[in-house]
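Practice problem: predict the structure.
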Amino acid sequence: MSDDCCEAGIDAGALEQRHRRVLVAVLAINVTTFVVMVAGAVMSGSSSLLSGTLDNLGDAMTYGLSLAVVGASPVTKARVAFFKGLLILGAALAVAVQIAWRLTSLETPVFESMGVAASLNLAANLVCLRLLYPVRKDDLNMESMWECSRNDIVDGLAVIVATVAVWLFDSAWPDVLIAMVLLVVFLKSATRVLRRATQEMRGAPT
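Answer:
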């Protein structure tokens, strides 16, 4: 019996260490990518790229929170997941405000800067997705991180499409329309995370 308890403790400890390693790696990637995306968004004037920038900032914050609650109780993880949902919702609202501002003065983004930043962002997000894939079903904490990472891939691909469309049509509209699509994606994701976290908080033991 004691051997079983010791083995369970070792397994749980190993799992926590695995989660920490993954989260440290994806946190470092997102902080670096955020800097690149800020520069790209400023240089290009792209709304869709800005949405990716805000998403990276939110991800860096949520990865940091996730790292802090590795090994915590289910209810604590659920509360942190709820806060992550609020961060995703906040990013969506920030994108909505930026889109509204862009509609008052449409200027065609610089597609070269947009394309470089978008390509680097997508590559970094694919690495994060690969790192999170093996641990995505371990608990709510990692599941919410997987949700964020999948959003990043959709975001990255959408910005690539926007870059090509801006280049083809020499217009700001593809960029704005893609930003609107990403806004819907963020809102749906926030709803899923908040709903799941709420269910977990109601059912988790205190």
